[in-house]
């Protein structure tokens, strides 16, 4: 790396901290965001990513199931949900979920299940579903339900979130996905998802999951009404939670897609702002091991570039993703394992198949 | 690598061996940084240009049968067309109404249209105040053969009929070992270069392209770049170099889609090797708007065309669309000033 470049950009102190492995603060994060040369920020993030993971790019053979789009939350940014009773709503029973998975060519190593906050689906439904999945696909790791769903189940059942997590864990749950974090800034949340749990509650539930031995992921939905400072604040709150409970495995930056959303955004993201946000995330989240290039939302070509802007994980084969596609994502519904391996090699990096917990699989 | 970097930053010309070191070994960010430095030395002003034009295909009937092509129809095959005057005139009027300054006119190698048909078409086009950026060396070679003329003679006649410049299509990979496999009936590499140089000698500017990621070896991409550099040394007539990746859908070649990273590496090494080319275009049509924007930091200084109409790449399964406003927004988002240009890269006055 040529440090003179960072002197010219007035970022030599930040670059030095990155090279020395020192922690960056909020101001550093904002200065990186303001850097006019996005590739300079990318090179720093790539340096950090390479220190952590060499030239490995992880991927998982996974399957997404969205069990319902019926949701009581009515978040303004969401193109996926339907109100209870509204036309176009769907809810899958356990048999349909199992039939979908059985129809796939190879059993998945990870089953990713999330859905809307349905007003009537009881915890027994989910316990039953997890139990059946565990029996039918013993090799698969069950990564299911965002903190938002966990809180919703607790309200419906009149029990604590800890009890919900404990019961689901007993039924086979291994991990929580990172969705529902959106952006923690209270004023933005009030506009985009007023009925959803707040950031403090989201973090509390993840901390609780970590204490119970459940790994979790974390996300940031960016490019809607939030500022860059809100993104930095969000990342630092995640970092503080990770310092306290240590259970975050992977951070997933999610660009907001404007196409089918009711939320009108004055200055929608462009590709460079996506890469900049991914790179700053890698640099600020020094205690979260992995950063995902989520091709479903980024698009495959941008996800490839993101592997040089701090990301080390290409997610997976996915199959039948609904939420991002209903928001306007024009990526494919699935990538095959061979495609993923070839494209990672094409990027000059080494594909490594992993399980949900990032253990390498032979 | 360090000495090589210093040499490039000092404006030195790289050798084939040095280009190979850069292309195959340099870390992506270092390659990008060097290419961007070369680009900024050539264009210190923070401007990224674009052209407003329309691709008009006069025919898809073609005797070439190139294996990478999803667009052509063989003579007699269903779905073949030949543009009529009414259609052509309407497309030009629409282009002018949308602020377009030129048309990019290309077509298949039609088996029996005489040269006079193309001359008539050019004269018709030049009834309108629009730049005719038309044909390609393989089309010129085809016209010459069909009409028993020299290629220079064909170019002179087309120029007299109104041809303003020649796009750099049909270059594919300028290595005959590759061409004989993927486009055996198209003109060879030397002929492609000779026709361009003849056009330059007759006072026409041209561009140069490269389509990569089909059946060539990566080292042959570098051969292509050095062939262009030598040609430009001889005539200086190329305005820009435009590389893009092969799109395999609906073609007779099975290949994986190259990654954006492979595209950026090629663009960057091209910027460094082609020290006598003023401009490098990014390809949003094949790479999408996000990578096109990033490519402005890997050697690109021109956003290409607004592509009021594009049919050939679309036939191979790619359908990125961008409005002029969106192109301006993307260029500004990268920190540059967008400026509309003409074929020769002169800037239009800002409205």
What does this protein look like?
The complex is a heterodimer of chains A (362) and B (351). The relative contact order of chain A is 0.16. The radius of gyration of chain A is 20 Å and the shape is globular. The two termini of chain A are 34 Å apart. Helix content of chain A is 44%, strand content 13%. Chain B has a single domain, classed as TIM Barrel (Alpha-Beta Barrel), CATH 3.20.20.70. Chain B has 14 helices and ten strands. In chain B, β7, α11 and β8 form a beta-alpha-beta unit. The radius of gyration of chain B is 19 Å and the shape is globular. The model of chain B has no long low-confidence stretch (mean pLDDT 94). Chains A and B meet through α4, α12, α14 and α16 of A and α3, α11, α12 and α14 of B.
Secondary-structure blueprint of this entry?
The complex is a heterodimer of chains A (362) and B (351).
Chain A: H1 4-8, H2 12-19, H3 26-34, H4 38-53, E1 56-60, E2 62-66, H5 94-103, E3 110-114, H6 123-136, E4 141-144, H7 147-157, H8 161-171, E5 175-176, H9 186-192, H10 199-211, E6 215-222, H11 228-245, E7 248-255, H12 271-284, E8 290-291, H13 295-298, H14 300-306, E9 313-316, H15 323-326, H16 337-346, E10 350-353
Parallel strand pairs in A: 1-9, 1-10, 2-3, 3-4, 5-6, 6-7, 7-8
Chain B: H1 2-9, H2 16-25, H3 28-42, E1 47-51, E2 53-57, H4 85-97, E3 102-106, H5 115-125, E4 131-134, H6 137-147, H7 151-161, E5 165-166, H8 176-182, H9 189-201, E6 205-212, H10 218-235, E7 238-245, H11 260-273, E8 279-280, H12 284-295, E9 302-305, H13 312-315, H14 324-333, E10 337-341
Parallel strand pairs in B: 1-9, 1-10, 2-3, 3-4, 5-6, 6-7, 7-8
Helix pairs in contact in B: 3-11, 5-7, 6-7, 6-9, 9-10, 11-12
């Amino acid at each position: 790396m040529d440090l003179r470049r960072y002197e010219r950009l007035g970022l030599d102190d930040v670059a030095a901290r990155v090279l020395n492995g020192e922690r960056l603060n909020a101001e550093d994060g904002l200065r990186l965001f303001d850097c006019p040369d996005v590739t300079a920020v990318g090179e720093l993030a790539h340096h950090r990513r390479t220190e952590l993971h060499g030239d490995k790019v992880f991927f998982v053979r996974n399957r997404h199931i969205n069990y319902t789009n019926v949701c009581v939350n009515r978040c303004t940014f969401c193109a996926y949900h339907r109100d209870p009773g509204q036309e176009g709503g769907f809810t899958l029973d356990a048999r349909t979920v199992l039939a979908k998975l059985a129809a796939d060519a190879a059993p998945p190593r990870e089953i990713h299940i999330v859905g809307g906050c349905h007003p009537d689906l009881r915890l027994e439904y989910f316990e039953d579903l997890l139990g059946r999945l565990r029996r039918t696909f013993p090799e698969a790791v069950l990564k299911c339900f965002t903190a938002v769903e966990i809180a919703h189940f607790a309200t419906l059942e009149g029990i604590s979130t800890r009890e919900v997590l404990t019961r689901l864990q007993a039924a086979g749950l291994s991990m929580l996905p990172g969705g529902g974090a959106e952006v923690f800034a209270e004023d933005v949340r009030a506009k985009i998802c007023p009925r959803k749990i707040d950031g403090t509650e989201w973090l509390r539930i993840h901390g609780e999951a970590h204490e119970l031995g459940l790994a979790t992921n974390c996300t940031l939905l960016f490019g809607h009404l939030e500022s860059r400072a809100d993104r930095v604040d969000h990342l630092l709150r995640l970092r503080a939670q990770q310092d306290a409970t240590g259970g975050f495995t992977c951070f997933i930056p999610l660009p907001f897609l404007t196409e089918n959303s009711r939320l009108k955004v004055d200055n929608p993201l462009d590709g460079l702002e996506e890469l900049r946000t991914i790179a700053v995330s890698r640099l600020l989240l020094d205690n979260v091991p992995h950063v995902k290039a989520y091709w479903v939302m980024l698009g495959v070509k941008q996800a490839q570039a993101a592997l040089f802007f701090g990301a080390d994980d290409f997610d997976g084969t996915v199959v039948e993703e609904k939420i991002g596609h209903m928001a306007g994502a024009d990526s494919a519904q699935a990538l095959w394992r061979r495609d993923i391996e070839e494209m990672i090699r094409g990027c000059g990096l080494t594909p490594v198949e992993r399980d949900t917990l990032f253990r390498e699989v032979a | 690598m360090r000495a090589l970097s210093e040499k490039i930053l000092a404006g030195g010309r790289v050798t084939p061996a040095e280009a190979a070191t850069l292309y195959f070994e340099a870390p992506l960010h270092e390659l990008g940084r060097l290419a961007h430095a070369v680009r900024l030395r050539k264009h210190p002003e923070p401007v990224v240009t674009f052209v407003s034009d329309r691709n008009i295909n006069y025919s898809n009937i073609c005797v070439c049968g190139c294996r990478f092509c999803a667009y052509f129809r063989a003579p007699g095959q269903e779905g073949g067309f030949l543009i009529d005057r009414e259609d052509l005139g309407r497309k030009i009027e629409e282009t002018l109404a949308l602020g377009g300054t030129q048309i990019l006119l290309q077509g298949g190698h039609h088996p029996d249209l005489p040269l006079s048909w193309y001359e008539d078409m050019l004269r018709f086009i030049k009834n309108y105040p629009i730049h005719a950026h038309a044909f390609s060396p393989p089309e010129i070679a085809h016209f010459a053969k069909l009409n028993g003329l020299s290629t220079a003679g064909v170019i002179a006649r087309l120029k007299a009929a109104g041809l303003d410049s020649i796009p750099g299509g049909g270059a594919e990979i300028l290595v005959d070992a590759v061409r004989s496999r993927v486009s055996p009936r198209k003109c060879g590499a030397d002929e492609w270069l000779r026709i361009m140089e003849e056009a330059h000698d007759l006072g026409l500017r041209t561009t140069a392209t490269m389509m990569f990621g089909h059946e060539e070896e990566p080292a042959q991409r570098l051969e292509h770049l050095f062939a262009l550099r030598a040609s430009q040394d001889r005539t200086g007539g190329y305005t820009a170099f435009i590389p893009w990746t092969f799109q395999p859908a609906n073609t007779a070649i099975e290949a994986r889609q190259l990654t954006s990273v492979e595209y950026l590496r090629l663009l960057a090494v091209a910027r460094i090797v082609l020290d006598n080319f003023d401009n490098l275009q990014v390809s949003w049509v094949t790479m999408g708007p996000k990578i096109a924007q990033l490519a402005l930091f890997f050697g690109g200084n021109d956003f290409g065309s607004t592509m009021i109409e594009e049919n050939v790449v679309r036939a191979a399964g790619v359908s990125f669309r961008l409005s002029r406003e969106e192109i301006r927004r993307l260029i500004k988002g990268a920190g540059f000033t967008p400026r509309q240009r003409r074929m020769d890269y002169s800037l239009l006055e800002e409205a």
